[in-house]
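Pasting two entries for a bug report.
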Amino acid sequence: MHLIKGSGRERILGFTMVELLTVLSLMIFLMSLIGPLSVSTFEKAKAKKELLLLKDILKETGKMSYLTGKKYQLLLNKSSIHIKRLESQILTDIGKIDFENITFESQVILYDKYGHSDIANINVFFRHEELKLRLQDL
C-alpha cells in the first residue's frame, strides 16, 4: 500500500504495481494446481454416468421385451450400441447410442419375449479397464 503523508492527514492512493502482480501471480499459480484436478473429477463423473446409462439400457431393454412380448437385439460394436426390435422376422431399428468412455468387443445380445437375454455376461472396457457385467444382476 502506498501512503502519502502531508498536512496532518495520510492519504491512501492504492496498491503498487508490484503488489498487484504478486497477488495475481499467486492466484494464477494456485489455479494451475487446482484446475487439472477439477477437470479430472468432471471426466470421471462423465464416464461414470455413461456406465450407468449402459446398465440402464441393458435393464430397460429386457423390461421392454417382456412388456411388449417382442424380441429385441442389442448390437455392441466398439463404442456404440444399436437397438433393434424383431417383429415377424423383420428387424426394426430403434436407435443408436454412442459412448466416449466405454468400448465393447463386437457381440450381439438377444432378448426373448420374456425379457431374458441369451448371454449371461458382457465384457466392457471402461476407462481402459476391463469390466464384466452380469446381465442377471442388473
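Entry 2 (this is the one that rendered wrong in the viewer):
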Amino acid sequence: MLRRDRRYRFALPPVFACNNVRYRQEQILKEKAFYDILVRVRDNHSFPYAEEKCITLAKEIAKLVNDKAQYADWSTRDDIKSQLNMDLTVLLYRNGYPPEWDEEVFEKVMEQAENFKKNENE
C-alpha cells in the first residue's frame, strides 16, 4: 500500500527488507525534504514557481547532494563543500529559482544536505 502526500507527488513505499526498496524510500524522503524547503521559501517570498518545477528541482538537488556527499568526511572537507556550494548555486540559477537571488534558499538547502548525511551515519 502506498501513501501519498497531497502536496508532493511522490509515492512513499512501505519499508521492506530489500535494500533497494529501502534505498529508494530514503531517496524519496530526501527529495521531499528538499521539495518542502523550495516550496516554503517560494511561499514565504511570494514568487511564482510551478509545482512541477519544484518537484524536478528537488530531485536534481537530491541527486547532486548524493553525488557530492558520497565520501564519509565530506562535511569536514572544504574542497568538497565548496564544490557542492558552487554546483548548488549553478543548479538553482539554471532553474531560475528563485527569480531574484536570495541567500536564504542556498543556506536552507545546504543545511538540509548536511543534516541528511549526519543522520544517515547514525
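Dev reply: Rendering is fixed now. As a check, the viewer should reflect this: The beta strands are 3-5, 8-12.
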